[in-house]
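RECORD TYPE: protein structure
NAME: Piercer of microtubule wall 2
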Amino acid sequence: MAPGRDGKRSISAAGSDAEMQAARQPPCLSPGNPVFSCMLDPKTLHTATSLSKPEMIMYKTSAGRYGEFSPLPQFLPCSYIPKEQGFSNHIRATGLFQNNTLNTALDRTRTIDFPNFQHTL
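PREDICTED:
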């Protein structure tokens, strides 16, 4: 009877180990975009560095921080080279199409019109 008890104990111990494994798994059930698939409490997701204040790690930047630092002189352009204004001059002289839009349709070529290649784009 003693081996039977030991067998039962090992089964129950294995069951408790499986329960502990399930308890240790993070509640992030679906891999992918952490904003939509992670079910962790957002209040606990903060950075932990000694050089900066704790911030949310779900969002790296915000619109309020855009342009916070002025550009360094090393990254500024050394010369100004204006671009040709041919397209703008043409639109200014002739105007837009009748419905005030630009023509952005693909040019029809023999390759696109060929029946075998018609639905490959």
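COMMENT: Residues 2-24 form the longest helix (23 residues).
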